[in-house]
Structure formats: structure tokens, C-alpha cells
Amino acid sequence: MESDKFLIAGKHYLSRLLVGTGKYKDFKETQTAIVESGAEIVTVAIRRTNIGQDVKEESLLDFIPKEKYTYLPNTAGCYSKEDAIRTLRLARELLDGHNLVKLEVLGDPNTLYPNVVETLEAAKTLIKEGFDVMVYTSDDPIIAKELEDIGCCAIMPLASLIGSGMGILNPHNLEIIIDNAKVPIIVDAGVGTASDAVIAMELGCDGVLMNTAIAAASNPILMAGAMKKAIESGRDAYLAGRMKKKFYQADPSSPTSGLIK
Amino acid sequence: MKIYVNGQQKSFEATEICLSTLIEKLALNEKKFAIEYNGEIISKGNFPLTFLRDGDKLEIVIAVGGG
Description:
The structure holds two protein chains of two kinds.
Chain A: E1 6-8, E2 11-13, E3 17-20, H1 27-37, E4 41-48, H2 60-63, E5 70-73, H3 81-94, E6 100-103, H4 116-128, E7 132-137, H5 141-149, E8 154-157, H6 171-180, E9 186-188, H7 194-202, E10 207-210, H8 212-215, H9 220-240
Parallel strand pairs in A: 3-4, 3-10, 4-5, 6-7, 7-8, 9-10
Antiparallel strand pairs in A: 1-2
Helix pairs in contact in A: 1-9, 3-4, 5-6, 7-9
Chain B: E1 2-5, E2 8-11, H1 19-25, E3 34-37, E4 40-42, E5 57-65
Parallel strand pairs in B: 1-5
Antiparallel strand pairs in B: 1-2, 3-4, 3-5
């Protein structure tokens, strides 16, 4: 739909599906799945390089060209605002001054639940330094609003725990967050299959970010295509406006008059 | 001279070595990477001007798959 623009930090995207690049069998599979998903924004992690290894070693950047995709460096594995800020400063240097980042500050290694206190502090510093911050957070509507108010360019609440595939556990909180927001709301984490992505979009989310749901499917390439359709279908259903639910009262679709007697 | 690269100790006989030379020695020339030197980001243009000292700490990072 031409007028249904998806804008993040002033840039227009056609796809509302954002995907991660982790957990794939190899870079070739990563590339094929991303092409199939139609995603334009892809997350990457920043890690120490192996010292003294093969100079010709394959690199993710060779398979997912920086010119074709919007890279979204993340702070996965960071448990403090200091580590998250350090990581994203390095990411900006690595990606030639690229400012769009995904901030996540984790609070616990078992649940990977976000530490929203550290996240807020890190976001303030990063925004001051000129970063466009897309922020992973809990589904707490008050924290989501606070993150928007300090200047985050997209709020990304979890649907359920990272990598859990448990789907949308609290649709009502997501609805409150969506209703109160003026920036894009993107469900990040917890989607397990296509119907979860449809539900997120039908609720009115602006997009969905996923990695494991595609990469850990038995056939990641097929799932990538399924997710693309799910996002489009859910968005269209949201825009179309669903019918009102009628509890315990049927309503026939065929005419009630003109029946043969 | 001993320096720390990504947490690993590296020893060099030379007393004066700049970041550009270090990159060559570590065979990182063809990679896309970024460097933090004692906690500060060093841009590529400043590699030849940054001379390492005993005990310096470097972090050299790349982009990898992640979600």
C-alpha cells in the first residue's frame, strides 16, 4: 500500500519485518533466508575478531552487503550501560558513522530479561551522542513511554523471552503501548511462528523483529517466506479493521428472506 | 613490549610500533574492523599516528551474526 509508510529515524522502509542474522548454519543460509524474508533491516552483533586466523576468512558483510541492507548493530550480551555504550561506539566506527542502533541491556542470563534502569541511562547517553536508538524493553507501558520521551526512535517491547518462541503473552500491554506511542512500536523477541507475527501486526504494531523463529525452524528458508506473508497479512488486517466480535449471538451471512416454503 | 589484544597478551621486540604496523603483523588488513585503544575509539586515519606502549589494551571487533 503506497500510503502505508514505515518510517524509522526519517528513513522509509517497504518491509515491516526486521530480522537477525544469528544461529544460521552458515552465511549462505543466512543470506538466502534474509532474501526470502524481504527484510531490509538486519541486526548484527559486535564481537572480538579472532587474532591470527585465516586472512581470507568469510565475513558476514560479504553475504549481507552493507549497501543493500540497513545494518542494525545490537548490544546483545551487554549487562551494563557502560558495555552497551562501548559496543555501539565501536559499531558506529565499524559501520562508517552509521547511527541507527539496537540498544538492549540485559538483566539476567537465564531470562535475558531487559534491565530497564540501565537501558534508560544508556539510551540517554547514546541519544546525546547522536545515535538513533531503537530500544529493546519489557512490555511495561510506563517504561515504553519514558523511552519514547527521552528520544528513542523506536520502542521494541518483548512478546515473550528472547529465543523462547512462546509468542505474544500479553497482547493487552502491547495494545496500551501502541495506543500511547507516537514512534514505531516493534515487537522484538518471542515470536515462534507465523501466527504470532500476524497477531502482533493485527494489534497495531508497526513491525516485528525476529531471529530464532526463522533460524531455528526445520526449514528456515520456508519459514522466512511464511513470516514475510504473515507480516503483510497482519498489517493489512489491521488496516482493514476487523469486524466486531458478537458474543453468543450468531448473524447469518445469507439472506433471511426469500426462503422456499 | 607487551600489549593486550582482545584479552590476549602479545609480545613484540620493537620498542616503537604504531597501530598500522600492528594490523599488518596480525594479518587483519583485509578485514572490516574497528579498534578501541585503552578505552578510546581510534579512527583509521589515526592508526599510523598511534604508537603503542607497554601494557596497552586493544579491542578489535567485527560484525557477526546476531539477533
